[in-house]
Design goal:
The protein has about 200 residues and is α/β, with parallel strands linked by helices. The chain folds into 2 domains: about 80 residues, Alpha-Beta Plaits (2-Layer Sandwich), CATH 3.30.70; about 110 residues, Ribonuclease Z/Hydroxyacylglutathione hydrolase-like (Metallo-beta-lactamase, Chain A), CATH 3.60.15. The protein is built from 5 helices and 13 strands. The strands form 4 sheets. A 7-stranded mixed sheet has the order 5-6-7-8-9-10-11, covered by helices on one side. Strands 1-4 form a two-stranded antiparallel sheet. It has a two-stranded antiparallel ribbon with strand order 2-3. A hairpin with a 2-residue loop joins β12 and β13.
Length: about 200
């Protein structure tokens, strides 16, 4: 939970705030750009939510935050925000929310596919999210795009009886993954194509 005593000085006045545990992962700014902004090495509340839509988006950001850095002194219910995930982005793709500290706050996604759903990278293990995925028919694959973004992939795969897919260069992060992709050529899984893309840029802090 966010600590009011560690509230960042750059926050706009009002009940919603970000504290100094923020890791500047950008999740809140993506989910609620009208409320959150970057300030130095942190996100802050640039403006308190105005209207129901902005408030709903801000509370979704609160529950998605991987380190619990967002607080609400008004203690408003987050039940609807929790229930909003997976959050539909476009077509068959949904954002899973519940970003994981272990993945440095990286986003994870759900691909609805008639031959079985794909989890793309892993969120943190969250019972409400598990129930939502169960209600949608479970998972066939957990596709891991990078060694940094595995989070609770093994737990999701075990629970749903899903197969994990990871590239050989990242195998150290999931050495017991069921499917290992080799080389740099595209590989088809039915009508889903996996395209290895070597290279990764780390931002220094």
């Amino acid at each position: 939970m966010a600590d009011p005593a560690r509230r960042l000085a750059g926050n706009a006045g009002g009940p919603l705030f970000v504290d100094a545990s923020c890791i500047d992962c950008d999740a809140c700014r993506q989910l609620a750009p009208a409320t959150f902004a970057e300030l130095g090495e942190y996100s802050v509340v640039a403006a308190q939510p105005c209207g129901d839509g902005e408030l709903a988006a801000a509370l979704r950001a609160l529950v998605a935050c991987p380190v619990g850095a967002i607080g609400d002194a008004a203690h408003r219910s987050v039940a609807d925000a929790v229930a909003a995930f997976p959050l539909r982005i476009d077509g068959a793709v949904s954002y899973l929310g519940f970003n994981a500290r272990a993945s440095y706050g990286a986003n994870a996604y759900l691909l609805d596919h008639p031959a079985g759903k794909w989890m793309i990278d892993s969120p943190r293990w969250t019972p409400s999210l598990v129930r939502s995925i169960e209600a949608r028919g479970g998972l066939r694959y957990v596709f891991l795009t990078h060694r940094d973004d595995v989070a609770d992939a093994a737990r999701y795969a075990e629970h749903f009886g899903a197969q994990r897919i990871i590239h050989a260069r990242d195998r150290s992060a999931q050495p017991d993954a069921e499917i290992i992709v080799e080389g740099d050529d595209a590989i088809a899984f039915g009508d889903v194509t996996v395209i290895p893309t070597p290279g990764h840029t780390h931002r220094k802090r």
